[in-house]
Structure formats: C-alpha cells, structure tokens
From TrEMBL:
The keyword Oxidoreductase applies. Belongs to the short-chain dehydrogenases/reductases (SDR) family. InterPro entries: KR_dom, NAD(P)-bd_dom_sf, Sc_DH/Rdtase_CS, SDR_fam. This is SDR family oxidoreductase. Residues 8-188 form the Ketoreductase domain. Pfam families: adh_short_C2.
C-alpha cells in the first residue's frame, strides 16, 4: 500500500486529542516523521509510543505553547537542526467559545484570536523560512465551515476562522514562488470529545444538527485527517490556496 508521506518531516499542532490525534495517527500511517505539538504532552506519551511502533516510524511529542513566539521558534529550529528539513505543517490547535451576540466576552475573543490566528500566522511564517531552503513544503491550516456559511452563536469564533481562510489564500500566493503550498481544511460538525461534552451539557439535540447535513452523519476526526494527508502529499502538488470543505454538505 502506498504511503503518501513516506519520510516527510511533519509538524502537527494541537495533537493531544480529537482531530489533532487523528492527524498524527494518519500521518504516521503514511510513513511521516511526526512532531506532535501540544501543551498536554503527558496525555500523548502512551499512544504516541504505540503509534510509532505500529507504523514503524518516529512520532515525537513536543511540549509547546503556540502563543509563545520564543518557544515556537526554538522548537522549529531544533527540529530543523535534527532533521535537516521541515516538509509539512498542520495548524490544528484552536480555541472555541460559543457566545451569542450580547454575550460575547472580550477576554475569550482575544484568546481565540491569539491561538486561532496570530499563532497560526507566526507558525506559517517560521515554517516557510525553513521550507524555502529546500524549495518545497506544504502547509495545511484548519479553518471551519462556520467561516464559510456563518453560524448563530459563533460570531467571534467564525471571525477567527474567516481570518484563517484569508491568511491561507494570501500566504499561498506569496509562498508559491518558493515551492510552498498553503491550503486549508474547513471541517463541519466533527464528533470529538469537545462536541460530545457541549451537547451533553447544553441539552441540544444532536439529531437536529445531523438533519442539516446532507450526508446524514457527523464527521469523524479521521475524515479531517484524510483530507490533511491528501493536501500534504505530492498528490496535491498542483493545489494551493484552496479551502477544502469536509462537512458532509452541511447547511449549518
């Protein structure tokens, strides 16, 4: 079976659980050397080791706060020194606070912009410097269907993901001459731990949300991971500046 990312050095942020964990496992299965960034490294230790052993590759947990510029720069420099290259960056780490108009909290909004936008911009910029040395690289940002379609109760969050989409399109044009592709995946409703907790605590009906998805089911973390693997691979070598919806044809 073909391994789409054989030998590629890949960085994935927000890797401890949910979508990030699925991306790590998919990339390892495709033969990548994976650096899994998260502040919760302890959560990753057991499954990271098992993942590496299962797929015969290296999966290295990295404790990193992506909002700390110095920490991020040090981590990327260390990886480049160790591996001699950085081939793929997946900006998955994110924060979400769902608030309706009139209830939006400034501190929460500022945190979302720091994590979802500013940290992503800084990581793209840093990773691109290393990728440019080899005239090749792929960056995949995680946006959201809410940024494309809008969503009641997610005005501030949607704004951060809309910024990610704009960032992706502009970075793709700017970095193309250096052989670096930049794309984004825009997931719909994905059944992660966070989603389950939200619907258990709010009393909202999952069935109502599924009813707005044409394919009739919630997305899985693996659905998003598969899209990321494709965009990161050479199969997508002529694809850049695109926003790939992974939403089951949702209407929100």
């Amino acid at each position: 079976m073909e391994r789409l990312l054989q030998g590629k050095v890949c960085i994935i942020t927000g890797a401890a659980q949910g979508i990030g964990k699925a991306i790590v496992e998919r990339f390892a299965g495709d033969g990548a050397v994976v650096y899994a960034f998260d502040r919760q490294v302890g959560v990753m230790e057991q499954w990271v080791e098992a993942c590496a052993e299962r797929f015969g590759t290296r999966v290295i947990p990295v404790c990193c706060d992506i909002t700390n510029s110095a920490e991020v720069k040090s981590a990327l420099m260390s990886i480049h020194k160790q591996e001699g290259r950085i081939d793929v960056l997946v900006n998955n780490a994110g924060v979400v606070f769902n608030r309706k108009m009139g209830m939006i909290v400034r501190d929460e909004t500022e945190l979302m912009f720091r994590v979802n936008v500013i940290a992503v911009l800084e990581l793209v910029q840093l990773a691109a410097r290393f990728m440019a040395r080899n005239k090749t690289g792929s960056i995949v940002n995680i946006a959201s269907v809410t940024a494309v379609l809008g969503s009641p109760g997610q005005v501030a969050y949607s704004a951060t993901k809309g910024a990610v989409i704009s960032l992706t399109k502009s970075a793709a044009k700017e970095l193309a001459s250096q052989g670096i592709r930049v794309n984004a995946v825009a997931p719909g409703i994905v059944e992660t731990e966070r989603f389950t907790e939200l619907y258990e605590t709010t009393g909202n009906k999952i069935d109502q949300r599924i009813g707005k998805i044409a394919l009739g089911r919630l997305g899985s973390p693996e659905d998003v991971a598969n899209a990321c693997a494709f965009l990161a691979s050479e199969r997508a070598s002529y694809i850049s500046g695109q926003i790939l919806g992974v939403d089951g044809c949702a209407s929100i």
